[in-house]
Amino acid sequence: MFAFLTTCVFMYDIVADCSDNVPTRYLVNDACVLSGKPLVSASALRMEGQLTVYNYNGGPCYRCLYPVPPPPETVTNCSDGGVLGVVVGVMGCLQALEVLKIASGQKSSFGQQLLMFDAQDSRFRCIKLRAKQAGCVVCGETPTVTELQDYESFCGSAATDKCRRLNLLSAEQRVSVQEYKSIVDCGTPHLLLDVRPKVEVDICHLPVSIKIPLASLEDQNADHINFLKEKISELKLQMSSELQVPVYVVCKLGNDSQKAVQLLEKMSGTELERITVKDIIGGLMAWANKIDPSFPKY
């Protein structure tokens, strides 16, 4: 694959990156630097888009800005997080415009600028990027990357836009949808916490769930944390004071729920008291596939 891509890059004057995963971005960037081609890069997620041009007129490459790949569990792609098709269309048109400008000899507007599009407010803004880095391992003064590498190993993730399956928790910290169904059927007191964004919750949700987005837990949003505390206190009144309150966390696919469990466990004993937290493996899509075929899939 790497050799094939390098051959393809050498055949063309401009490369447009429309990929949806980190390993491919590093791969395409390095191939463009090694072949001396400008890279017009655009991305979209949910209701936001970004556009810039790397390796152009002395500007930075992708590695200048991101010398180290992010931890795989912190990266959300379109399959996991969703994307509004209109946003992809807007960013694709702008990307095509920059390709045409470069191809026709006109100066690109984003050689060292990052265009950011917020579809929610229909606003564009532009920020200046850092300059080309002398110490960059691929485009710097003394590069150490002189040929393409194993980018999946480098990034610790697969070069695919398919839905990932994270494994952040131990088996004791997780329950299957069948096990959770038994808990519901037995009437065992518990809280079900849905950590999807509101736009997804509005599509479908289990009626017994309370809704707090993962982003609110990450930011420790005071209103949402207090809301969770209230729900835990209400449940404690129904249970023996000696028992810990069981909290089960659900999302679409079982990735964000694992992150939420880790966050809630850190809060246990401080912001939140006397709780046990587990995530539901496979999330609501597993619920739809294995428990309730009538549950909406999206």
Largest sheet: 5 strands, mixed
Question: How far apart are the termini?
Answer: 32 Å
Element-by-element helix/strand order = HEHEEHHHEEHEHEHEHHEHEH
**Proportion of strand residues:** 15-25%
How much is the radius of gyration in Å?
A: 23 Å
The counted number of beta strands is 10
Question: Any idea of the CATH topology of the largest domain?
Answer: Rossmann fold
> CATH superfamily assignment of the largest domain?
NAD(P)-binding Rossmann-like Domain
- Subunit organisation of the chains: single chain
Give the CATH class of the largest domain. Answer: Alpha Beta
Average of the residue pLDDT scores? 88
Q: Which secondary-structure class do the elements indicate?
A: alpha/beta
How many distinct helices?
12
Poorly predicted ranges:
none
Helicity level? 25-40%
- The domain tally reads 2
User: What strand line-up does the widest sheet have?
Assistant: 1-2-3-4-5
> What is the architecture of the largest domain at the second tier of CATH?
3-Layer(aba) Sandwich
Shape assignment? elongated
What tags apply to this protein structure?
single chain; 298 residues; Rossmann fold; Oxidized Rhodanese, domain 1; 2 domains; 5-stranded mixed beta sheet; 5-stranded parallel beta sheet
